[in-house]
Amino acid sequence: MKRANYFNIEPELMTYLIDQEALLKQKVEASFGVTIWELVKLRASQLNQCAYCLAMHSAQALDYGENINRIIALSAWQDAPLYNDKERAALALCEKLTLSQSIDDDFYLALAELFDQRSLVTLTVAINAINSWNRIVKMFKPTVEFNER
Q1: What residue stretch is flagged as signal peptide (predicted)?
Q2: DSSP string, the chain
Q3: How confident is residue 2, by pLDDT bands cut at 50, 70 and 90?
């Protein structure tokens, strides 16, 4: 079954989301960097089982210089010695928000030790954005293309 082409049907809405990504990239680069951003996008996409976004963001992460072993180990990040404290905190937040879990005060304080307030807002919006994209793609199922490198 062919599903709706969301870009053609609602280009104004899709342009809004693409513009949001461009703004997020600027904010991310100014605060915690694209490495954490790509890891968060990949982890949310794993949790949401979004193959299209996994293919896209794996390629983007590699383009930004991410290590293939860190991409492979991401689903087991808690046990892999490949991530620093800031990345681990961002991934933990990503999981909590993606899975609609509570953010208690102790967790928030632990995050605030690693990220300033502006960065926490940016990170939260970035996690929300990838979850939004994952849900759109899960609904309309565009063709998934994994490009081997």
Answers
A1: none
A2: -PPP-HHHH-HHHHHHHHHHHHHHHHHHHHHT-HHHHHHHHHHHHHHTT-HHHHHHHHHHHHHTT--HHHHHGGGGTTT-TT--HHHHHHHHHHHHHHTT----HHHHHHHHHHS-HHHHHHHHHHHHHHHHHHHHHHHH-PPP-----
A3: confident
User: For residue 123, what are its two tokens?
Assistant: 């990170």
Does the pTM surpass 0.70? The reply is yes
CB atoms within 10 A of CB 146: 12
Q: How far apart are CA 39 and CA 98, in angstroms?
A: 14
As a whole number of angstroms, the distance between CA 13 and CA 5 comes to 13
70 neighbors 57 (Cβ within 8 angstroms) = no
CATH of 10-140, one of 1.20.1290.10, 1.20.120.140, 3.30.70.20, 3.40.30.10: 1.20.1290.10
For residues 149 and 13, the model is more confident at 13
Dump pLDDT digits (tens) for 65-124.
999 999 999 999 999 999 999 999 999 999 999 999 999 999 999 999 999 999 999 999
